[in-house]
Design a protein that fits this description.
70% of the residues lie in helices and 3% in strands. It has 506 residues and is mostly helical. Strands 1-2 form a two-stranded antiparallel sheet. It has a two-stranded antiparallel sheet with strand order 3-4. A hairpin with a 7-residue loop joins strand 1 and strand 2. The protein is globular, with a radius of gyration of 23 Å. The chain starts with a strand and ends with a helix.
Length: 506
Amino acid sequence: MAGGEVRGAPGGPERVALKKEIGLVSACAIIIGNIIGSGIFISPKGVLEHTGSVGLALIIWVLGGGVAALGSLCYAELGVTIPKSGGDYSYVTEIFGGLAGFLLLWSAVLIMYPTSLAVISLTFSNYVLQPVFPNCIPPYNASRILSMVCLLLLTWVNSSSVRWATRIQDIFTAGKLLALALIIIVGFIQIFKGNYEELTPSKAFNFWMTPSVGHLALAFLQGSFAFSGWNFLNYVTEELVDPRRNLPRAIFISIPLVTFVYTFTNIAYFTAMSPQELLSSNAVAVTFGEKLLGYFSWVMPVSVALSTFGGINGYLFTSSRLCFSGAREGHLPSLLAMIHVKYCTPIPALLVCCLATLIIMLVGDTYTLINYVSFINYLCYGVTIMGLIVLRWKKPKIFRPIKVNLLVPITYLAFWAFLLIFSLYSEPVVCGVGLIIILTGVPVFFLGVYWRNKPKCVNRLIESMTCWGQKLCFVVYPQGEGAEEEEEAPSARHRRPVSKMALRKK
C-alpha cells in the first residue's frame, strides 16, 4: 500500500515527507490497472479490421505484449539506475538535458494525460448511463456531468489519502481481472463444447482481405495502444518499498499477465462471435455478454464501468506525480512540488491534473485529440529508450542493479522506428499537429525556466501566488532526511521561494 505521513525523530521537529509504502501487490495493481482500461472490452475490432483474419489478429495481440515487455525491461533498468519519480520525464531530463525533459513534460501535462483521463471518464459515464438510455446514446450533457463528478470524486480521494487511492486501485484492478477471467472461463467452456470453429487453422487464417504493411502497422498501433500504461509505475519510484527489487518484479509479473489475459480474452470473443459480428459491434464485451451470459449480461457494462473507474484513479495518481517531479526540477511552478502537511499528498499537482482534464472535456473534441496523444505518447517511449543506449555510452561505469542486453532496446527501437515512419507517411497532419504541440513548449521553456534573471516584480508576483496557494491548499515542501534527501536541480532551488509557512514547519 502507499501513503504519506508527517514524520519526525522522537523528540525532534516534525517533518513532512512522502513515505515509501507502495509494496509489490500495489505496484502490480498500478501497472495492471493502468494498462487494462476500456480498450480490451470495447475495441478489439480495430486490430481485426486491419489484419483481415482471426489468426493474424491474435498474433498481433501477442506481439503487442512482447514489444511492451521489451519496453518495460528497458524502463526497469532506467528505473533502478535513476531511482527518481517522474518516469520518462526524469530519465529524459537526466540524459538529454532540461529542454528535452521539459518538452516531454509540457506535452504530457498539456494534452497527453488530460486527454486520456477525459476519454476514460467519458467511457465510464457512457457505460454507467447505458441502462438508463438502453435504446440511444446517452445525452451529451448527462455524460459530461457524470464524468466530471467521477473525476472530482477521485481527485478528492487522492488528495485525502494515498492509502485510500491505492486501495481503490487494488480493489478495482482485482475487479477488472475477475471480469476478464469470467470472459476467459466462459470462452474455455465454449471450446470444450466444440464451439471453436473460428479458431481452427483453416478458418483462423482465412483472409477476407490481404493486409498490406500499412494495415499491419495500423493493427499493431491499435494493439500497442491497448498496452499503454506499462511505464506508469516508474512515475512513483520514490514511493516504492525497495524499488530496486520491487520495480522489476512488478514489471515482470504484470506484463506477461496482461498479455495472457488480452490474448485469451480475444480467443473467448471468437468462441461466441464470428469476425463479422465482432466488426459490427461497438462494444464487444457487451455483445459477448448478451450472447452467452443471458440474465447476467448486465455484468459486462458494469465491468467496463468499474474498469474505467479504476483507470481514472490510476491516471490521476501517476500523472500528479509527474507534475510533482517537474515542479521539483524547476520546470513547473514550485507550488506543484508541495504536499499537504497532514495527508502528505501532492494536492496542487492533483488539482492541476483535474482542472486540465475538465477543460479538455468542456472545450476540446476529446476523441480527435486522442489521435495526437497516441503519436506523442509513442514518440516519448522511443526517445526514453534511446536514452538508455545514450546513458550506457555517457556513463558506462554507473551502478546498474539491472542491465538488459543491448539487443532489447535495439529491437524495441526497430519496431518504434517502423511505426513512427509509417505514421508520418500515412497521417502527416496528425503527426504534424503532434509535433507542433510539443514544440510550443520551446518558448515557454526559455521564458519560464532558462531565463533566470527575471524582473523583481515578476519574482514577487510568483512568490505571492505561491504563498497564497500554500495557504489555500495547506501545503509545504517535503522535508528530506539528511543524507537520504535527494539533491535538487539548480533550477528548482532557484525558483523555490521560502514561504512563512515552510519556515514555521521547520
